[in-house]
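Handout, section 4.2: multi-component inputs.
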Amino acid sequence: MKQKEFWENFIIVAIILVIIQTFLYELGMYQHWSITARTVLIFSGLLFDIIFSVEFVVRSIISARKNGASRYWLYERGWVDFLSSLPLLLLDSGPTVYFLLAGGAEDATQAIGVLNILKVVKAIRVTRILRLVRIIKIFGKVHNTESRMAQHHTATIATTAVFTVICTLMGFALFTDSSGTGEIDRRMAYYTEFFTSVGDMKADKGAEDWQIAGNILRRDRNVLELRYNERHLFSRISDEKLRDYYSPDDYVRIQAGSFNAMISVVDVHQRVALDHMKNFFIIIFIVLAFMLVYTRHFAQTISDMIHIMNKGFRKKDYNLQVKIRDEYIDQEIFKLAGFYNNAYLPAKLKRIQSGEEKKRSGLSMKDLADFQK
Amino acid sequence: MLNETDQNKVRGFVDHLFTIPNIKNEPILIAESLILNFIVQNLDQLKATFSTPQFFPELPWNSVLQFILSDIYGRVEKEISPMFMEYINTGSFEAINRMDETLAFPNDFHREKLGEFFLSAFRNKDYRYNLNSVVNIFNHGIIEKYITEIFRRREFLYNEIVRVQKTYIECEDYITVMKVMLLVKNAAYIKISFPQAGGGRYNLNDTLRVPGRLPKFIDAAVSGIRQQAPGIPEKCVRLSLKANLKNSMTELEDASSRLIYILSARFHNYSPVTSVDRGAESPDKSWFSIARKNADHYGFDRRMLEALYRLAGDNNW
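Output:
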């Protein structure tokens, strides 16, 4: 029992940490943190995905042995555990770490390839936020430990709402350029076209094409470095900064004619990260709203009534009436509570006071039998 | 007479009675009445049982029974009596003089006579019958709480107990009067003889079985009580005794009797609720609301219940 409690608490802590990790990951992208910091976040993401995948597999096996897997899958939200574990491990954090360990995609072609592979994966990454649904279990316990019904219904409706939002986001991710790859493609095409057209400008301007390109692109913040054959025209950032802050994913290299340019795509990643953070907060606030507002509403209008009536039905000495607010008086549960207040309790007290109960609670000769035993 | 060893043995038996599961969780006065009922109903069987080796084969039955009853009373007296006596010995009772302008007894006199009356009445098991509500009302400051609020609101209940009843005294004095009434109330269950009773001894329950005898019984009981406690005005004693009657048996001006009748029923089986479940009405409000539905059955004054229901609800009692 203690071991089970330990693992449940471990998972709760992991859920809280993974929410923080998810946010920090996007924040790190948006604020363009150092490569080291972002790498730590990538590896921690992998670690959490492994933890949740193991949790899902273990729970599936245990449930299959106890009650059948379908119960866990359908009624205990095993499908949520599944969506927030294995797909992420196999399609998101796993491949990301693999490419990171494999030395990264150094050249532009490779980078594009990797980005293409990850295009679908990045859309699915939105499902990471489904882990937030598990928080409801924690808050449910704090709000009303006796009402499993309130916990269950709040969790169900919160899961439905969150999952609907996530499906919508995933739909958009699949059919729009939510991961920024299209924008990067367009940017590469633009600069390739630019370097091609510089040759045409050469005759008009009376200057060398590398001079024209250098003069124009020196003011372009996206161009980090420009080379012309072996000639180094300019670098916008130092080698140290490039090493510490620019991973191969943060720029693309364009080879067009004699030009070789390093083009930053950090701003594209920042836009994508901002979108992700926006989605993250939408879901966080949806879950919080359900936990704080709807759970309370559910308790006040459903589970508290049932809790009180249940106690009144079962306990002889419990005779408190259900509080009925006028605005809800026409609802079924309050009609039932009205019957409980106005018919059941008066009849119950009459029965108790009529002495039937007293007779039962009195003494009998049997009670004397164990004297001096 | 039983010797010390025998007494200890019988005491052990009484200890055993008070630790039986159905008894040990009850207030001592209710436990006492359950045990006494049991003894009365099973007298023959008990006599036979007590002569078995497991019990007291060597002791005379009458002595054992006498000692058991006396030991039970001793326990009840030790637990209940000090609380009332402390109230009587420290209370200020000049207020009850204000119910009757012809009375002007000093406080010491009231204390002395009230104390004598209570100790004498308390020895009678019929007086102790239903006294649990009075114990609860005293212990939990119910009269102070309700009378103060009734006087603060000055609504229906105030009109009833002050104007209709024509008892024009201040709030603090009314609290004293009500508490004295509670002390006197149960004297109605002590059997008394009176001229119309044909030589027999009757209490209120006996009297109610014979139509038309109630007024004579009340008169006789008032007279008897006032002989013991002459400081208590006749009106106060009469109202006290009527506090055991259903609404339909009281007069319009017996408002405080009807109020005490309701409060006694409310606090007979009472244990304070430390925390009310979320979504539940407060304990007193719930009780008064339920009592409204059973008002005719139990003889409660429905209008008073309505007023008490609102009062308890407004104060979250």
